[in-house]
Amino acid sequence: MIQFGKAGSSTLRDMFEIRSEWYGNPDMGHPTVNRSLVRRCINPDPKSNLRQDNDGTKKKFTKPGYPFVEFQWHMNPHFWRIEHNVNDKNCTDAIAETAWKLWPDSESADRYRPKPIVQATTLCTPRSKVKCRRLVQLREPVSHIQSSFEYFCKNCKDNKKYCGFLIDAKCGPKHSKIGDHETIQSWAEKFGNSFTRKLKGDEQLLAGGTIQGKLSPGGWTHPLEFPIHADEVLRSLRNAGDCVVALEDPNRLSKIEACMGDRPGFYTEELALNGQNKTNKSNGAKKKLDPKVTDELRKILAADIYLYESLFPFLATNGAVGTNSLE
């Protein structure tokens, strides 16, 4: 699974944790997992398993001896998540292969065979013993950038990442008082079109706008070529048979079931889940954008909107695109 902040990824993680535990997938912190991975996953930087909180204290970034485990692994232990510092392709392959090796054999008399899922930043290589596909959940781009702006910048959430903890992106109370706070348009210029950039998988396109690409106060450092890059992403997704769903799609759970090999109705009937987005909400209701601001954002976010409309034309036809459809 490829994660996009403020596109419902937290809800997906919770859902996949329940799914993985239901099937009996082992805890990623279990010694059995470690034995299968430790020889192929070596953390080159011993200090990278520490993180500094806002109060200055340092805490373990991963479980000791498990450099490949995401630092919040204990919150969703059965849904495997790989830390951002794991970019070694051999390690990624090892994790994908181990996920299949240890995944409970759920093959039954019917034609449904559930597949394991791992949250990662990179795909396994052609040398891997298993084939990987991406599962991606996108969100209407204008609504997505508004939620991103309010959550990360205006309200300084996520450990004040953009408000001085990692970078000072002219966000939060200090810059509101000074009078040079980011606008939603400038925020979109700096950090928008993240769907196209991340799915393109080009390190140059990630520079400055992601943790992996070393966040910069000025955002992306390399220009996006539109529509070339968006078209390349579309071809890549379709040729690989990747699973792509939209947060606004009322049928997204059934599409995820089909992609993951779960029987129809598995999430709603067996797990009693409805997939409703319920975590990481900002304070208060989202304000409706001025039509002129929306028009400006549509121009800035042209690549992501083009990608979204091409993948989900039925949502564009129903007026979801550019209307701030999700509160």
Describe the structure.
The protein is mainly alpha-helical and 327 residues long. 40% of the residues lie in helices and 6% in strands. It has 15 helices and six strands. A two-stranded antiparallel sheet has the order 1-2. A two-stranded parallel sheet has the order 3-4. It has a two-stranded parallel ribbon with strand order 5-6. Helix 3 links the parallel strand 3 and strand 4. Helix 4 packs across helix 7, helix 8 crosses helix 10 and helix 10 packs parallel to helix 14. The longest helix has 15 residues. The relative contact order is 0.14. The C terminus is likely disordered.
Give the topology, please.
Elements: H1 9-23, H2 31-37, E1 50-52, E2 58-60, E3 80-81, H3 89-102, E4 118-119, E5 135-138, H4 141-154, H5 157-160, H6 173-178, H7 184-191, H8 194-200, H9 203-206, H10 228-240, E6 243-246, H11 252-260, H12 266-270, H13 291-300, H14 302-311, H15 313-317
Helix pairs in contact: 4-7, 7-13, 8-10, 10-14
Question: How many angstroms does the end-to-end distance come to?
Answer: 24 Å
Q: Count every helix, treating DSSP H or I runs of 4 or more residues as helices.
A: 15
- Order of SSEs: HHEEEHEEHHHHHHHEHHHHH
The strand order across the widest sheet is 1-2
Structural class from helices and strands? mainly alpha
Parts with pLDDT < 50 across at least 5 consecutive residues:
48-61, 322-327
Report the principal-axis shape.
Answer: globular
Oligomer state equals single chain
Percent of residues in beta strands: 5-15%
Biggest beta-sheet profile: 2 strands, antiparallel
- The chain-level mean pLDDT equals 84
Percent helix range? 40-55%
Radius of gyration: 20 Å
Number of strands: 6
